[in-house]
Specification:
The structure is a homodimer. Chain A contains five helices and nine strands, in the order βαβαβββαβββαβα. The first copy, chain A, is an alpha+beta fold. Chain A has an eight-stranded antiparallel β-barrel, surrounded by four helices.
Chain lengths: ~180, ~180
């Protein structure tokens, strides 16, 4: 699956939430997500632009791999996810295979949906507030068009393309802790 | 978790099943298991004596890591397992991380329990019939004593210690296909 994604920092999350709902988005739930990121022994995911993560979200857990970003303007990348039952054992297996935990990102995520857009309003511990808009496509061929449609939606929310960010929360946390 | 395990080839599985039940074991179900084994790009699990496997068993799926054997007489080793929901996505993540599928072992397993022993009577495609007796312990310190108690039980079934096998089904399949 290809996740077409655009992200931006948010100054006034309450105002932005009102704007999203005014534009017709439906709230679909709030999650608390604790994401532990791993790095490989034999290659640095920071350099290869990959990510490997265990997410624990309100009692549910997922293992996720993200491939390198596929364009120069968005956070679009290949993403594969598996629901897992025991995140502690999963972490142990990853460590035994040579993947070591690097850092943890904790956030409260408000989810919205409008058409085929998934919108997340994130309050990230130590980093602040962000919006992420995402569309899943099967094929990278269609991603450019989807990126442009997300940019257009962002503009309606008063967020110009120049304000979007391509850095992951993990990269931001690691920079902050340097 | 340490899995203390002893295994042997079986000539007459029906007779052996009767003997197991006569000794007081309780049948606890029959599974069909399809195990896909992966090898690492940066180290050969055949040489490091590790194993990484996705098991699909009657609609349930598991990811399992097995460490090197811990003694010279049994198949005792560290084992960590996670129940997973989507084995296809798990296989894709492993491949993206540099682990490639090597071979698949398919078997019908009849499970029995007696005390803290788990007994499996396996009918393995292309390999034949085997018995595996297993005890889980938290600490490798107690494993020697447990191995000896399994050997004693095996003897009651007419299987002498010399007839036990330390090779995995994967190793046997790979040897056969050479």
């Amino acid at each position: 699956m290809i996740e077409v994604e655009v992200k931006a920092r948010v100054d006034d999350p309450k105002q932005l939430e009102r704007s999203i709902i005014e534009l017709g988005a439906t709230p679909i739930g709030i999650d608390t997500q604790t994401d532990t990121y791993f790095n490989a022994e034999d290659r640095d995911f920071g350099k290869t632009d990959e990510a490997l993560r265990i997410r624990v979200q309100d009692g549910k857990s997922f293992l996720t791999y993200k491939g390198p970003k596929l364009d120069k303007i968005s956070k679009t990348r290949k993403e594969v996810e598996v629901k897992i039952i025991d995140p502690k054992n999963m972490g142990q297996i990853l460590t035994l295979l040579g993947f070591l935990p690097v850092s943890t990102v904790i956030k409260k995520r408000k989810n919205f949906r409008i058409g085929d857009f998934f919108i997340a309003l994130d309050e990230v511990r130590d980093l602040g507030n962000f919006i992420e808009i995402e569309i899943s496509v099967n094929d990278a061929k269609n991603s450019d068009e989807k990126v442009q449609s997300i940019f257009k939606f962002m503009e309606k929310l008063g967020i110009s393309r120049e304000l979007t960010i391509r850095k992951s929360y993990l990269e931001m946390i690691l920079e902050k802790n340097k």
